[in-house]
Write a structure and sequence with these properties.
It contains 4 helices and no strands. The protein has helices at about 1-15, 20-25, 30-40, 50-65. The radius of gyration is 21 Å and the shape is elongated.
Length: about 80
């Protein structure tokens, strides 16, 4: 029985391997900067999916999620 408790405690203390989404990283800019730094430096092996999510989050923060440009039906005459 004590062995089971040790296994459960170790499993609970292990680092999560979940990958943050772009939406989550947009809300947490400190984590976004940290992930970007780790992806660029290469000192810590980052999953490619996490680097892609950080890149997408930075793109969305810079470009925004506003309405897309739609040209007018009748072009103006100059």
């Amino acid at each position: 029985m004590p062995q089971l408790a040790v296994v459960v405690i170790l499993a609970a203390c292990s680092k999560s391997t979940s990958i943050e989404t772009a939406e989550w990283l947009m809300v947490h800019p400190d984590r976004l900067r940290e992930v970007e730094r780790q992806c660029v430096n290469g000192t810590v092996k980052m999953p490619q999916a996490e680097c892609n999510a950080a890149s997408e989050a930075r793109h969305r923060l810079f470009m925004g999620n506003g309405p897309k440009y739609t040209p007018p039906r009748n072009a103006p005459k100059f």
